[in-house]
Structure formats: C-alpha cells, structure tokens
Amino acid sequence: MRTEATECVPEQPARRRTRRWWAWAPLVGLTAAVLAGAVLRIAGRAGAADLIWAAVTVVALLPAVWSMLRAFWHRHFGVDVIAVLALAGALGVGEYLAGAVIAVMVATGRSLEAYAQRRATRDLRALLERAPRTARRRGPGGAIEVVPLDRVAVEDRLLVGPGDVVPVDGTIDDAATLDESVVTGESRLVQRTAGEAVASGVVNAGAGFGMRATKSAAQSTYAGIVRLAEEATAHKAPMVRLADRYAAAFVPFTLVLAGLAWLLSGDVVRAVSVLVVATPCPLLLATPIAIVSGLSRVARRGVLIRDGGSLELLGRACTLLVDKTGTLTAGRPRAAETIVAPGGDRNEVLRLAASVEQLSPHVLAAALVRQARESGLALTEPTDVTEEPGRGVSGRIDGRLVNVGQFTGELPEWADRARARTELAGWSAVWVSDDDGPLGAILLEDPVRPDARRTVRRLRAAGLRRIVMVTGDRPATAAQVAEAVGVDDVLAHCTPQEKVNRVRAEADRAVTVMVGDGVNDAPALAQAHVGVAMGATGASASADVADAVLTVDRLDRLADAVEIARYARRIAVQSATVGMGLAVLAMFAAAAGRLPPVAGAFLQEGIDVLVILNALRALGGGLRRRDVPPRTRELLARFAGEHQAVRDVLAGLRDTADLVATDPASPRCLPAVRETHRRLTDQVLPHEAAEERELYPALASPLGSDEATSTMSRAHVEIRRQVDLLGAQLAQTEDGRLRTDQIPDLLATLYGLDAVLRLHLAQEEEEFLSLDPSDSAPARR
C-alpha cells in the first residue's frame, strides 16, 4: 500500500512484468532460431539450416568469450572456458546443430538462474521496496509536516496514518493495530496498547496514532534489516566460490580427456563431444540457487542472514553457545508473585507500586507498570517523587508516602519468609512500604522462554552436538535455567572477555554459532563462525556485528533457520555431486565415440535442467515443525491468554496455604480456603474442561497422534480429584473453624494442588502453546 508520508514509490507492475519477459527473450529467440533451422532441414534446405544454427552458435559464443576474458582479467580461472571451447569446437568441425543446442543450453541455464534468484530473493527485495523515506512530524504548534526520514530525531512526535509504514522505532501514544509481517514474518495483526514499543517497518493496519521516536532512522530496526537484506543480495556464497575452485581441477581434467580422445582416435569430433557434455552447469548454477533459496526461506521465517556464506556455515554448525538473559529467558522481568502482609490486598499493593514507578526509567519499574496495566488496575499520578539509585523510588499516592525498592528495616515474620522464598527461587524482590512498615513484596522473575526446551531439542535433532549456556548471572540461577532447557554445559559469572575466550576455544574445535542479545554479547558474536543476534529486543551493537538477526522475539526461529540451512546445503551438494557425476560418465562415453556432439548436447541439457530443478527444492521442505491450522492457532492463543487467569488463582492458592500453615486459628483462614475452592471450581476446572473438549482434539494432527496429549489429560484428572478432595475437606469443618486434625491433610491438598497446577501449566506452555508459530501469548506472558 502506497502512502504519501512513509512509503517509497515502488517499481510499476507493468515495467516489472516487461523486465521479466525480457529476461526470457534470449532463450526464446535462440530456441525459435534452432526450431526454424530444424524446419528448414526437414524441408530439404540443409545449407540454410546450417547457416541459422551457426549464427545461433556465434551469438552464444561472443558473450561467453567476453565473460571468459573478463574472468581472466580478474585472475579467475573458471568453467566458462569449457563452454567457449565447446562452442568454438562445434563451429570448427561443422557440428552446427550441436553448437546451436549448446547455445540453447547455456541460455536455458542463465534464464533458470535468473528466474530462481528472482523468486528466491523476492522477500529480500520486498524489504527494500517498502523502506520508508519520509515521516509526518508534529511541529511546535501542533502542525503536521512531512520531513525526510534522516531529519527525524529522538523524542520527535510523529503521526502514523492508516496504511503508513512506521518510520522509526518508538513508543505509541494510543492503542494501535499493526501488521508486523515485514519485520517478524508473522501475518496475524497485532494489537498494541499506549506506551508499548513499536519497531520501524511495521504497517499501521488500523486508525492513525501518535508516537514518540526513541531512535533515529539509521539506528532503527528496519534500517538494520534493510542493510542485512542488501548485503544478503550482494554477497556470494562459499559454495559458489567452491565451484570456482572445483573448476581448477575439472577444466584440466576435461581438456586432458578431450585431448586423449582426439589423440588416440584421430577424430577431433570426439574431443568436441567431450567438451560439449563437460559444461558444468550443476556447479555454476545449482549450488548458488539452493543457497539463495535458503536465504529467502529463512527471511520469511523472521531470520535475516547476512550472506550465503553464513547460511552455509550455519548448515555445518556443530556447537552452539547461547546467552541466558534475553535469549533462553524472556529478558524482561515479570511479576511472578505478589506477597502481602496479613489482611492486605494484593492488587492494591501492585497498584501503589506501579503508580510510584510510572516516572522511573528502571527496567524493574517498567515491569511493574506493565503488570498493573495488564491486570486492569487504575494508576494514580504520584507527587513528590524522588529516586535514589540502588535504593528505590518514593512518592505520594493520594497523600500517602509510598516507598518502592529495598527495605532497610527489620522484616516481620511474613516478610522474612518472602525474602527466603525469593532467594531460593533466584528471583528479585521489590518491597512496597509506607511509614508503618512493609505492605508487601512483588517477586520478579526472568522466565525461561516457553519454546526454549523444545528449540534445544530441535537443534540437537538438526545436528548440533554440543550446546553451552554462557551468562553473567549467578551460578545457582544459571544452573536452574540450564536444567530447565537441557543444555550440555554452563559458564556462569561470565565476563564479556570470558565469553569471547570460550567462543574462540569452541570455534577451534568445530563450526560454532553464538546467540546473544545485549551489547556485552557483541564481541562474542563477532568471534563466532556465525553470530546470531536477538534483534527484536536486543541492542543494535549486537545486531551490527552479527551474521544473522532474529527479527521476531521467538527462539524457535533459530531452529527453523538451522534446519533450513542444513537442508539447503544438502540440496546444493547433492545437485552438484549428481550433476557432475552424470557429466563425467557422459564425457567418458563421448571419449569412447559412443556419444556424438548433438546427442551429447541434448543429454547435457537434460542434466542441467534436472539438477537446477532439484536445487529449486530448497525453496520448500526441511522443516521438522508441523504446520498448525489457523483454527488451532486461535485456540492456542485463547488458552494461552486464559493461563494468566489461572496463575492469578494459583497466587491466591499459595497465600491460602501459607495462611493455613502459619495461622490456622485466624478467623480469616477458613473463609480464605472457601474462596480458593470457589475460584478453583469456577475458573480453573472450566478452563481444564474446555482444553479437554476443544484444544486437545485439535492438537492431534500437529502432534501426530491423540496419544500426545494423554499425559496432560491425566493431569486434568488429578487436578479435578484434588479440587473435589478440597471440597470434601471443607464439608467436614464445624462451627466455621478448622480442627487441628484437619490441618495436615488440608495443607497436603493445598500445596499439592499448587505443585500440580504449576507443573501442568509449564508443561502445556512448553509442549503445546509454543507450537503456535506466531509471536503471540507464550512469548509475551
């Protein structure tokens, strides 16, 4: 869609169609001339036919000679010399039809190559065509002016109209509906709320909205993607250079064989036959077609690879080093749990903390504000806000002084238990307090990506033999994440220099891939054979030195890229090997006098078309992930969203269990247990029943069988049994109080439910919800 403000003017469709037709014109013209000669030969005009075929041979010979001389000038000794000798030899011995067929063969190869590259690079060209050139900027008086993109500065206020391309990275002022397919590869429209970050290059699919620029055009996401796309279309893959190296051995072999055939038989026609069938189009065309096809496919999956060389190396990789924070984990703190003082209100504690933190730039503040908004809490504008680095923020909310951050006084018993739980889990605690003491604590975690373990398994299946996690985090936290995702080794408390040293050591043993997202990962990414940056959330420094960038915030796209790279490389090697093997057999037959020039030319034409069509197979296949139907995607997204409500019930369940364990005589205890049972019955059990009824049957096809969900169904049975048991225990209470003998069984039920539900949710998110290939709920929760 073209817009005045942000879209560049694309090439006209009619002109593009004309250029495509002209690309086939040499092949069509030469083929028509050869057929015309055949008609003349059948009509008995052999002289005229030979004249036309000779002209076709000359037309093909002249550009081939020019290409060969240009290669010699650049000190490249390639296989063009064989085509030149074959065409010239056919003219010299009067085999004009053979020469004409060779000419058509060369034109066919070039036309197929051009077609394959146009198809394989169309996604990369689309990025370049959609690059924004201008933006609508609000002036000091509110007036809108259209300015060149390079004049947009950080903090500028911009307007993005319907259908416009977002010109720079920024944060939006209003709710927006966005098409992020160009940047992420995901076709589903995405809803963004006010204050959320938006990347340049995405398209406004709804009403116009305002935004604030957070990066200049040159530093924005889309500019980096365009640079990678330009480099990807300009570089030559090592497999192509490998073809030139093969030519250094293949050309002398061909000349020697042709010379021996002539010398031993005394028939120069045999030498010409050898040259005719020796033209190695499989090496010249099939390998680059397969590699470029792979580049196009990974681009559609949301992975921009710098050049064919990086793709070829990715297809040979044996070792993967991966950063933890932002790569195996979400990289953004999430409120895992809110613990409140006895009698306190969890939502009120979160609201107070988020209200005070609204003006703080700290990453933990953003997590609190985001969590409060997702919970639908109305925030209050704070007054008298002060922030002390390393200690926290304080401000007045409705006249009440609230402190958010560290708590330096003596902790009461409930708070001391919360602190101990935080340390054991490896989380961070943000204390919320007033003049009377702590009101509660918000426990923040950096959750493991739901798709991380599945991705590690896919990478192993693709051929990566060693996976190492490197992180600057504490050993205990690193060990927990490593065990959760299943890596082979862990390097914790790792400095940037230590990361570089480890990457260098691994690279000395095998082809090594490094994945990271931060500025501190940039040196290690540069040191690896293939550096992969999490470009959707990472720093531009890491993306600038990387060989590949994941433009969508999903780790499983790395597994897609590795599988596609290995498949494309395998197709390239297969095409070259089979094609050259058939050509060598034909050369021996020609040297023995069993294959005349004309028959050899037609045979070589068939070999060339065969291997090129085989190379085009790299445009599809190779992925182990099963396709997920659109209806199943909708179900996955729906139930992923419902998991947050289940987690809210879980938080209350844990609070209730702790209350029963510490103060069973409290008058609040039994009502809390009853409320927990009600929420389990009214919210959790209907959710589990709907999954059993709707989601699990829909997953049978993507997962391969109905049995794939059987263990989750068994968990549903156990959850219902425990909830029913809790109801039966409540029915035995007398006089509104818990009996002493009831408490152990009640605690076993409550804590058992907590453990089973948490494990069940984690397994569902890892095994099922991460199947959704969109950038949806599992990656954002």
Automatic annotation (TrEMBL):
Keywords associated with the record: ATP-binding, Cell membrane, Membrane, Metal-binding, Nucleotide-binding, Transmembrane, Transmembrane helix
Keyword Mitochondrion applies: no
Gene Ontology MF annotations: ATP binding; ATP hydrolysis activity; ATPase-coupled monoatomic cation transmembrane transporter activity; cadmium ion transmembrane transporter activity; metal ion binding
Annotated transmembrane regions: 21-44, 51-69, 81-109, 246-265, 271-292, 571-592
InterPro entries: ATPase_P-typ_cyto_dom_N, ATPase_P-typ_P_site, ATPase_P-typ_TM_dom_sf, ATPase_P-typ_transduc_dom_A_sf, ATPase_P-type_domA, Cation_Transport_ATPase_IB, HAD-like_sf, HAD_sf
Hemerythrin-like domain mapped to chain residues: 637-769
Intracellular or extracellular location(s): Cell membrane
Domain P-type ATPase A: 131-230
Superkingdom of the source species: Bacteria
Membrane topology qualifier: Multi-pass membrane protein
GO cellular component terms given for this protein: plasma membrane
A Pfam family of this chain: E1-E2_ATPase
Entry-linked CDD domains: Hr-like (cd12108)
UniProt entry tagged with the keyword Transmembrane helix: yes
Family classification: Belongs to the cation transport ATPase (P-type) (TC 3.A.3) family. Type IB subfamily.
Protein name in the entry: Cadmium-translocating P-type ATPase
Species of origin: Micromonospora arida
